[in-house]
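Dear support,

Our group has been running a series of protein-ligand predictions, and this particular one with flavin mononucleotide is the one our PI (initials K.S.) wants archived with full inputs and outputs. We had some confusion internally about which version of the output was final, so please treat the block below as the authoritative record. The input we submitted was:
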Amino acid sequence: MAKIGVFVGTVYGNALAVAEQAQQILELQGHEVEVFEDATLEQWQAYLQDVILVVTSTTGQGDLPDNIQPLYTELTDKLGYQPDLSYGVIALGDSSYDTFCGGGCTFDELLQEQGAKRIGDVLLIDAIEVAEPELFAQNWIEEWGTSL
Ligand SMILES: Cc1cc2nc3c(=O)[nH]c(=O)nc-3n(C[C@H](O)[C@H](O)[C@H](O)COP(=O)(O)O)c2cc1C
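Confirmed final output from the archive:
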């Protein structure tokens, strides 16, 4: 069973609801799970040999929410390479924006550049089509947790 850190970027709480759903499902599967809002680099670094799930919405024009942007900046500036990390990304957005799910996709690109290993595809959740993102994400989370 895996040690999993769930790192959340949210403005209005939708991504947090998905993260809490993920915690519930993954714990039922026997994983050890902690959810982080306003996370620090140190909290991230505690998972460098383990598993991270990034659950983030998009704000502005393809930007990361304020509660996860500082972590992204620190990862970019201070970490560089994280080859032993396995991760997944759930990206929330709205397809009426040009930069659909830009926040989650930007995070994914950074982790790819830094040599981390993505488990599964990025899950994109479109607010135009999905009223309850935490229910929509259930199957993806179950499959992701099983494949760890
Ligand atoms: C001011 C504002 C800007 C947004 N910008 C984008 C964007 O650039 N790209 C996108 O895909 N979604 C964008 N969205 C949609 C949100 O990402 C989407 O509604 C998401 O479900 C919100 O999740 P949250 O409650 O966790 O923040 C924007 C929403 C707002 C209110």
